Amino acid sequence: MTNRVSKVLTGIALLTAVIAALGIAGAHAAGITLALGNAVSLAGLAACAVIAVAAVLIALSHTQRYRERTHAWRLREAALAMLCIVAIAALSQAVVILDYLCVALAPLSIETDLVRFDALLGFHWLDLYRWVSAHAELHRVLEFAYRSSIVQLIAVPFILATTRRHDDLAEFITLFAFALLVAVLVSTPFPAQSAFVHFGITDPHTASTVSHYDLLRSGQLRQFNLSESQGLVSLPSFHVMLALLLAYAVRHVRHVFPAAVVLNAAMIVSTPTQGGHYLADVIAGVGFGVLSIVVVRRWMAGPRTAATTGPRATHPT
Predict the structure, then answer these.
(1) Under 8 Å CB-to-CB from 25, ≥6 apart: which residues?
(2) How far, in Å, CA of 11 to CA of 170, rounded?
(3) Hey, which bits of the chain come out as E strands?
(4) Cα–Cα distance list, 228 to 30, 109, 208 (Å)
(5) Membrane-crossing residues (predicted)?
(6) CA distance linking residue 7 with residue 306, whole number of Å
């Protein structure tokens, strides 16, 4: 494992612990009961198993007898990717608790302002939703693109690790953490009800996926099951931010980058109709996604420059 990635993973682990502690304490103070649920419990056990497997692979890579074979098969890199995926999943769960507490603060909801802003740009969400729904093939393509985010979050660490783009991998994990926190911090003072709910859309996988929003704001949701968590951030769209980060992360992997650009461009296009986002959410997602890349890139430029003066840890694809 490269020193830089190990430092990033250590930092993410500490950040996750701090956010989880704050979230648990905040939930207790607010009188909200937290439960893991079966899905999260199983995911936790799976994460422990993955960490154990990764530890074995790393240990083998340092054993003289297996060093050449593990290097050729890139088993150490696979272990690194596993640890990064666990870090992403753990941080996401911790931030979910924080996000729910922020929604429960219930500042003035701004969805009416977002609809008005969209109209000024000539965009009418309901018209677009009806048009996409009337074109079944297009709807399936957009749904596939929207749901691809989970698969990409697993694939990108493996791609970057196995191609030994360790600097890019460290940057991607840092970007993910930064963007996730930015999305929650921005949405807290500017919450918005999903377009699905605002426009009365009750199709499967629409309003039902954001039903906790009003329950939290009204104080009716007093028990929160992590296995049933929902994405309640409207502005900025984290899906749009993530699409930019995923494409940016593989920019140096020439055979993957073009496909990533196409897929994530489709993800951005799918966000209004598949995620119930306003056009304003998409625009904000692009803005804050680019901002996240600029900030993290500049922040990590110093360590990266310093690293180039020592032995190279990465190899060209």
Answers:
(1) none
(2) 11
(3) 33-35, 223-225
(4) 19, 23, 11
(5) 39-60, 80-106, 144-162, 169-190, 231-249, 256-272, 278-296
(6) 15
Q: Structure tokens of 273? A: 């109709």
Residue 313: its pLDDT value, please?
44
* Residue 15 host element (H or E): helix 3-30
- Give the list of residues 6+ apart from residue 99 with CB closer than 8 angstroms, or none: 184, 187, 232, 233
The burial class, CB within 10 Å (0-12 / 13-18 / 19+), for 270 is buried
Tokens of 27: 């939930």
250: number of Cβ within 10 Å: 26
How many secondary structure helices (H) and strands (E) does the chain include?
13, 2
Report d(CA 90, CA 69) in Å as an integer.
31
Bridge-based pairing state of the strands 33-35 and 223-225: parallel
For the chain, list residues with pLDDT below 50.
Answer: 1, 310-317
The sign of the CA dihedral 290, 288, 176, 211 is negative
Predicted structure pTM score: 0.92
pLDDT of amino acid 71: 82
At residue 66, the 3 state secondary structure works out as coil
The pLDDT value given to residue 61: 86
Close Cβ partners of 138 (under 8 Å, ≥ 6 residues apart): 132
Kindly report the backbone phi and psi dihedral angles of residue 3, in degrees, each rounded to the nearest multiple of 5, phi listed first. -60, -40
pLDDT of residue 256: 97
User: Quick check: 172 and 249 in contact, CB under 8 A?
Assistant: yes
